[in-house]
Amino acid sequence: MNQKISHKHHYLPVHYLEGFTDNDNMFFVYDKKADKIFPTNPKDSFFENGLNTVTLSNGEATDFLESLYANIENQTWPYINKIRKSTRKDTVDLLDKMFLYSFLLFLYWRLPCNIEFAEKLSEKTFAENNEFDYIKLRYGGGEKAPKEITNIIKNSEAFKKSFRQLIPFMPFIKDKNWSQILTKWRFLYTGDSQSWYIVGDNPFVIKPENDKDFVNCLKEFICPIAGNILLICADGPIKPKLPPEFAIDYNAAIIERAERFVACQDKGFLEKLLNYYKFHVQHGKTDIIIPEIFKTINQV
Asked: What digits encode the pLDDT tens for the residues 66-83?
């Protein structure tokens, strides 16, 4: 008997999105494509039907990848919840950072904006001297599988989609000093503990030269952990006190990075942010938003 599979697959997990909702677990979502705002909730937003569904060679559909994502998330929620409850007076433990880092890497590679790129990267596997040499295909006796077999596997839908769960291991395998990145992390809390940071379908603001770099993609970035907490990571020292307009520029960057959707619990605030962003669009200045943000956070 075929087991019923799920179809509503969130690329931004529901529990993560709940960090940006109001007391009724609702927020307002802006659709860049339709140019409209509508109220909704985490369960009904930031998902695609069948995103992680795989059709096997026998024609049977399976959602095993969705289950794997759920297992990864369930392991990290206690640590992320702890960070979300922290304040500027607290020190975030290294273990909490490690689990958050793992969660963010998996999150980055499951975003719709990165799926096509991940699929292209999957084509490099099993070749000689490729970056993904930690992915091996061997017979039971240890001998290398023939090219015909590897081609069948890596050209399959199952492998292409599974590869999104293999790339996140790259920084741990290729950079023996990966943990040093965590020492550069800084958590930025809103002054009144209210939710002034928005989230989008691409919640990572990344230095352009590192974007799509499968080892260094999260070397210098900004990402919202909740509506009142931002995670900032930069190569150089971060200014001890950022100007009030930094929050506005960060939110404009999230709108710029989004392929289609952004969410905020306050409709009026979201409308003001959109006006600010559209001013940049009108004057052809959207390309300066992200570079200026990193100039702002770096200590001179």
From this structure: 999 999 999 999 999 999
Q: Residue 63 corresponds to which amino acid?
A: D
Residue 216 DSSP symbol: T
Tell the residue number behind the tokens 């200014």, with chain if given. 239
- pTM for this prediction: 0.93
Phi, psi of 57 (to 5 degrees): -60, -25
Residue 263 neighbours by CB under 8 Å, 6+ apart? 17, 20, 27, 28, 29, 30, 45, 46, 198, 199, 200
Tokens 């140019």 locate to 35
* C-alpha to C-alpha distance for 110 and 184, rounded to whole angstroms: 25
Residue 54's contacts (CB-CB under 8 Å, 6 or more residues apart) are 61, 62, 63, 64, 65, 157, 158, 161, 162
Q: Are 292 and 298 in contact (CB under 8 A)?
A: no
- Extents of the domains making up the chain: 27-297
β-strand pairing of 36-40 with 27-31 = antiparallel
Task: Say how far apart CA 249 and CA 241 lie, in whole Å.
Answer: 15
Using only the alpha carbons of the chain, give its radius of gyration.
Answer: 20
Q: Are 129 and 176 in contact (CB under 8 A)?
A: no
With a cut of 90, say whether residue 88 has pLDDT above it.
yes
**CA neighbor of 41 nearest in space, from 79, 4, 8, 89:** 8
Backbone angles phi, psi at 279, to 5 degrees: -65, -40
Q: Work out the number of other CB atoms within 10 angstroms of the CB of residue 296.
A: 15
Question: Which DSSP category does 111 fall into?
Answer: S
**8-state DSSP, 61:** E
pLDDT in tens, 100-146: 999 999 999 999 999 999 999 999 898 877 888 888 888 777 788 88
Q: Is residue 1's pLDDT more than 50? A: no
Return the closest-CA partner of residue 103 out of 146, 57, 70, 58. Answer: 70
